[in-house]
């Protein structure tokens, strides 16, 4: 038990950047992708996680100079607790954090499902829109055809009226001369 605590204290006493392998060749080889429509601030164009972590560690070390940092995991009364009590406390805290993680994960899954439903509805609406556009253009062409036919029918009607009028005049004219 004491060996385990000693190992934990050794790990916790080292800066985080020593545990991260951010400067490895494999990490640098991974191609970064940038989406075209995402705005990137100019300050972040030379962003490096390792630099950021070491910068934060330096700030913490500067703040901690001459004073002991308070542990945000263990309460100030933890110094008076025995090792077993500290372990029980940490286990209880871990359970609470896991429950919170589960709750947030559940909410995230619900939102993902909601997004999936909305995406499928959007797809259906888009398909309906495309179908309606096709139908509208088809109806527009039919309307144009019907207009052309109506104009042609009106011209024929006018022509026939003129013929009827001419025939009536022709029929009345011989009667008027006799």
UniProtKB/TrEMBL annotation:
Which source organism? Answer: Silurus asotus
Q: What is the name listed in the Swiss-Prot or TrEMBL entry for this protein?
A: Testis-expressed protein 9 isoform X1
Extract the coiled-coil ranges from the record. 80-107, 143-170
Keywords on record: Coiled coil
